[in-house]
From TrEMBL:
GO terms for molecular function: ADP binding. The lineage of its organism: Eukaryota, Viridiplantae, Streptophyta, Embryophyta, Tracheophyta. GO terms for biological process: defense response; signal transduction. Pfam families: NB-ARC (PF00931), TIR (PF01582), WHD_ROQ1 (PF23282). SUPFAM superfamilies: P-loop containing nucleoside triphosphate hydrolases, Toll/Interleukin receptor TIR domain, Winged helix' DNA-binding domain. Residues 10-169 form the TIR domain. Signal peptide: none annotated. Keywords: Leucine-rich repeat, Plant defense, Repeat. This is NB-ARC domains-containing protein. Gene3D superfamilies: Helical domain of apoptotic protease-activating factors (1.10.8.430), P-loop containing nucleotide triphosphate hydrolases (3.40.50.300), Toll/interleukin-1 receptor homology (TIR) domain (3.40.50.10140).
């Protein structure tokens, strides 16, 4: 019922209507105790109204003399939404091996610490960094007084600016939506001044440059002891240069976990259907434990005929799936121009070759091949075998490189490299003989 127009007629701030012994002894008791602590004068009727009986004149009078307008309902709803939205995050279904990776990190060892800990998670696109970060958040957020998961920092910064990410931190951790900032430097100042009041869990997902790190979590000194700051990034050197305590490098799934993830998406169960087993085995081997690719290709084949499976297996090795390529492409696009050229050269002709030999061939007066190879390793675009120092590359990344080369071939005047022709291999072998390797 609406409150009287004359505020001086209010005798009560709140009129509470409730039924049931259980709610009277638990929720209502806590509610009225909280009202009393905050100086809120509430009318309480302990006599439950029997069904069918009319409300007494005394209750009508109490209702009329109580203030519980719609705007107060709105404020309560907002507070409830804040609590709910600061709870566990939605994580994809059919997860495989994620819980094992959370346990492997053992981040509970940092809860209650007298230090601020910064942890990095790195790996190439689609390998599951964000999924792991969300699983970590869900397993740990209850241990911290403040928490915030900033999803896709790179994308939000590009679309809306870095101040938007800072505002998200204020809303989640400081519980305020009224704080306004006009610049990144002003937002950084607020973080330094106000984030040190309580231990927090802060996840900054997909950071890609130093400016983001310096504006959002520039130093452990900004935060209260016991806080845990987690970054995910493609570039290991970015995390290394920020002096994080530990860097966890995401690995591809082993064959059995990869087969399980693929089967969950392609068949809706943990093992392949009998008649499709051989095709499933070949596809899983080709995708080399890449979680996103296993899910995308698995879902695209769900419920399809044997003929479609055969066709997709052949197509995969010639025409990479566009959804997968779209996810991988930013890893290439973010490279400097000379790094892009060397990446394509390595993908075309030096996979399986000795690192030092490849560097000697690729080196020129205006570039340092060894330094660029290190950059490509830090971005998880290539790996170097520890046993024989051979250059290696994930099949899907090499497919991306092949597509990029084909794009350039199709553009007049841009043809500059061939894709592993027999003549090029002959010339490499000749160089090996001349160099004595």
């Amino acid at each position: 019922m609406a409150a009287p127009s004359d505020p001086h007629r209010w005798r009560y701030d709140v009129f509470v209507s409730f039924r049931g012994e259980d709610i009277r002894k638990s929720f209502i008791d806590h509610l009225f105790n909280d009202f009393k602590q905050k100086g809120i004068y509430a009318f309480r009727d302990d006599n439950e109204l029997p069904k069918g009986e009319e409300i007494s004149p005394r209750l009508y009078k109490a209702i009329e003399e109580s203030r519980y307008e719609s705007k107060f309902i709105g404020n309560i709803s907002k507070e409830i939404v804040k609590v709910i939205s600061n709870g566990p995050l939605d994580v994809a279904e059919n997860l495989v091996s994620v819980d094992d990776r959370v346990r492997e990190l053992n981040l509970l060892r940092f809860v209650g610490s007298d230090k601020v800990h910064m942890i990095g998670i790195c790996g190439f696109s689609g390998i599951g960094k964000t999924t792991l970060a969300k699983a970590i958040y869900n397993s740990m957020y209850t241990y911290f007084e403040g928490r915030c998961f900033c999803d896709d920092v790179q994308g939000v910064t590009k679309r809306q600016g870095l101040t938007q990410v800072q505002m998200q931190m204020f809303a989640k951790i400081l519980k305020t939506e009224t704080l306004q900032i006009s610049s990144v430097s002003e937002g950084t100042k607020v973080i330094k001044q106000r984030m040190a009041c309580k231990p927090i869990l802060l996840v900054l997902d997909d950071v890609n440059d130093l400016e983001q790190l310096e504006a959002l979590a520039g130093s452990p000194d900004w935060f209260s002891p016991g806080s845990l700051i987690i970054f995910t990034a493609k570039d290991k050197q970015l995390l290394r240069s920020h002096k994080v305590d530990e860097i966890y490098e995401m690995k591809i799934l082993d064959y059995y976990n990869a087969l399980e993830l693929f089967s969950l998406n392609a068949f809706g169960k943990r093992h392949p259907t009998e008649y499709f087993e051989e095709f499933a085995f070949q596809i899983v081997r080709y995708l080399q434990g890449h979680p996103l690719a296993l899910k995308v290709i698995g879902r695209s084949l769900y419920g399809k005929s044997m003929e479609v499976w055969k066709s997709e297996l052949d197509r995969l090795q010639t025409y990479p799936n566009p959804n997968i390529q779209q996810k991988l492409r930013p890893s290439f696009d973010g490279l400097a121009s000379d790094h892009k050229r060397m990446f394509l050269d390595i993908a075309c002709a030096f996979i399986g070759e000795n690192k030092d030999f490849a560097a000697s061939v690729l080196a020129s007066s205006n570039c340092s091949a060894n330094a660029i190879i290190e950059v490509l390793v830090d971005n998880s675009l290539i790996t170097v075998s520890a046993t024989n120092m051979f250059l290696q590359m994930h099949e899907l990344i090499q497919s991306m490189a092949r597509e990029i080369v084909c794009e350039k071939v199709d553009m007049p005047g841009n043809w500059s490299r061939m894709w592993i022709s027999s003549e090029f291999h002959d010339s490499l072998n000749e160089n090996k003989v001349l160099s004595g390797t």
